Amino acid sequence: APEPKKAPEPKKAPEPKKSPPAKKAKEKEEEVRKVEKIVGVRATKTGATEFLIKWTGLSYRENTWEPEDHILDDSLIDEFMKSKIVKMAPPGGKYKVGAMVDVLGEADGFEYSWVSGKVVTVSKAGLKYSVEYADFMDGKKHLVEKDIDISRLRPTQSKEAPKKWRPGVGELIEVLEDDCWWEGKVLGFEKAKKGGETVKVMLRVSDEQKGYSLAQARPSCWWTGKK
Fold first, then answer.
1. Dist. CA 94–CA 133, nearest whole Å
2. Distance (Å) of CA 46 to CA 21, 62, 80, 170, 182
3. Any residues with CB less than 8 A from the CB of 36 and at least 6 apart, and which?
4. Cβ(177)–Cβ(184) under 8 Å?
5. Are the C-beta atoms of residues 216 and 161 closer than 8 Å to each other?
6. Rounded to two decimals, what is the model's pTM?
7. Sequence-distant (≥ 6) Cβ neighbours of residue 139 within 8 angstroms
8. Among 105, 161, 192, 213, which one has the highest count of C-beta atoms within 10 angstroms of its own C-beta?
9. CA pair distance 21, 99, nearest whole angstrom
10. CA-CA distances (angstroms) from residue 211 to 87, 107, 114?
11. Beta bridge partners of 55
12. Is 209 in contact with 191 (CB distance < 8 Å)?
């Protein structure tokens, strides 16, 4: 009889990444118009990211497209992102037990990262969930996180990018590292030492700039608006 296969070693949770210093607001508040909320996102012809801004006290007709650098409060982008994520929920607005989902990290050093798992419990209102992670272990059992808000869930995304996909400079994408998919902005492309090329990305969680192969990258569904 063949020898039984040994069970693989459980994966450990990755090390958190260091967050960048918070953006500083301009000293003269009177020179800064107050943003009510972000209502859209697009990439310009040069690849830069722009957000459609609804200004406090002005009508929607006076909304303007502004570069990301003009938004001093990162929480506005986070709120916009989560509003798009909630709209990705299945028909009826909630996930069922057994559904495969991606969970948005919120612990220090894991912001703007996604990890796959399976829904194991759902609150009556469908707003809170418990998820069993596929790749992380708690001893001999899969790690389970409880009380996850629906704004941190989306349907599990394909680990492979579409064929012939090539991100543009300035585009927000996701890159795979330590079993997490990290959001980051494309800065450009560089030749790889072993041939081919790598995409240079600035990670949202830390502003760290790193190179990744295209096999480690995929589009960001909340940025593109695709499920």
1. 19
2. 27, 24, 23, 8, 23
3. 54, 55, 56
4. no
5. no
6. 0.77
7. 10
8. 105
9. 37
10. 32, 24, 19
11. 35
12. no
